[in-house]
Every structure is written in C-alpha cells, then in structure tokens.
C-alpha cells in the first residue's frame, strides 16, 4: 500500500468486471492491467513496486503503463480537495477497467463525468428475477395516501389511481420540506374554480407552482480540482493538450511561438537612450 492519500484511485462508473476486459491489449499489458484491477484503492502501483511483484523489469513495466495510458485505462495527475482547507495538491493515479477516450478524461478532470450503464448488468434471467407476490398488496407512500383521500375533503378533486401514482413524487417533495398534511390539504382545496374540469391538472399545477421553500437547502458538493500530467515528462497541462496522456513536445510536435512579452520600463529607457546616442553621433560626423 502507498502512503495514506496516495496510490491507486478507481475511476467512477466502470462497467462490471468480465473475463474479456483487457482482451484488446497485448499479453504483457493485459496481464499488468488485470493485476492492477485486482488491487484495492490506495495500493502502490509505481514502476518499482510493480517490477518487484510482477515478472517484468522496470523498463517493461514503464512501457506497459505508457501503453495503458494511450489506450485510456490509466491517467496520472494532481488533485486538490476543495473542502479540505489545505492548499496542497495530491498526486493521483487513476485506473479504469473500462477504456476511456480523451473526451471522458477531460470531463473527469473538470468534475463532470457522464454516467454510463451496462445493459448486461441490468438484464436478469427469468429464473433469477424475483416474482412479486400477488397476495401481498403494494406499499403506498404517504403522498399517495393523501392524494387518494383528497376527494373526501373536496369531492371535485377525486383522483384516479394512475393520477395518484404520477402526482405522488411531486407531493413527496413537499413532505421533505417539512409541511404537514393539513397544510397540503388547505393549499390544494382553497379557492377551487366551479366547475372543476380536470382535477389532476389543478393538483399538478398547485403542487408545482406553490411548492414551499426549502428551510435547510444543502449546498451542492464542489468537485475536486484535477490537473492531468504528461506520462513521460510529468508536466501538468490541459486535458485537451494531452491526447493519450502525452504532451505535444514528447510526441515530437513543435510548439507554436508564444506571444511577445512586453518590455519593462527599464528596457524601454535603455533602448531610447541608445537611439538618442546614435542620433547624436550621426550629427557630429564631418561631412565629406
């Protein structure tokens, strides 16, 4: 295991583990990736530690890790926990059993990761799927019971079973905010038009437009700040500038010329003095 706070970090929303997760990789890379996949979070997956455990040398392990970065299984970078109160950046190594493209890793660095689901994990065989008992009736929620009994207080607002099921999630949000049943009945039944053409439409409109404020709003969690690093030189950079986890200079690309740096006031005065001196010397030269 690495020091606390370091080591392997599992990427979120990975597909379930199968026997063909790394079949697209060469044998050496597939073996190293399968071994890293079995390690727990926080395990030391540095080149030296892997070379001591696996039957490969450090050069072979380093080359395999670079290939795993290019295929989207591995990324290295730095992370700062926004709510930790510390200015330190922690070195991270993220591993993904599911191969990710550069766009996914860029979204991960921004803290905006698209959710993925596995169709195979959601499918269940008829033998394994639980069969609901017909003798046991369904459990009704508090919101459903109140909507079903709404016609007793206001007969014009009698709702069907389907309407109660569709409107129950809207009313559940009211109960989360701490309102009572009497308050809900007063809001839904006060000032009804005559006649009531659609009870479900009136109830839906009032549940949506008259929703009380949340007395204890929870602040949205702030995503951690992440910066990816080049797999070869270790220089941090934007995810868009690190395709395959490697920066442009390490891939052999020439960097475009940077913007011109403005001169300082001292340099400007020095150039002006040199120009005046050249003009004076030219005036003092004798004519031939």
Brief write-up:
The protein is of the alpha+beta class and 288 residues long. It is built from eleven helices and five strands; from the N terminus they run βαααββαααααααββα. Helix 1 packs across helix 3 and helix 8 (161-176) runs parallel beside helix 10.
Task: Briefly note the structural class of the backbone.
Answer: alpha+beta
Secondary-structure element string: EHHHEEHHHHHHHEEH
Radius of gyration: 33 Å
Q: What is the fold named in CATH at topology level of the domain at 8-112?
A: Arc Repressor Mutant, subunit A
Low-confidence stretches: 117-137
Residue share in helices? 25-40%
Number of strands: 5
Instruction: For the record, give the distance between the C-alpha atoms at the N and C termini, rounded to a whole number.
Output: 86 Å
Number of helices: 11
- Shape by Cα distribution: flat
Major beta sheet, strand line-up = 1-3-2-4-5
Binned strand content: 5-15%
Tell me the name of the CATH class of the domain at 8-112: Mainly Alpha
Description of the molecule:
β4 and β5 form a beta hairpin. The longest helix is centred in the last third of the chain and has 19 residues, at 265-283. The protein is built from eleven helices and five strands; from the N terminus they run βαααββαααααααββα. It is 39% helix and 8% strand. Among the domains are: 8-112, Arc Repressor Mutant, subunit A, CATH 1.10.10; 142-209, no CATH class. Mean pLDDT is 79; it is low at 117-137. It is flat. The protein has helices spanning 27-38, 47-53, 58-70, 102-110, 119-122, 142-148, 150-153, 161-176, 181-189, 199-209, 265-283, and strands spanning 8-10, 74-80, 90-95, 225-229, 236-237. It has 288 residues and is an alpha+beta fold. It has a five-stranded mixed β-sheet.
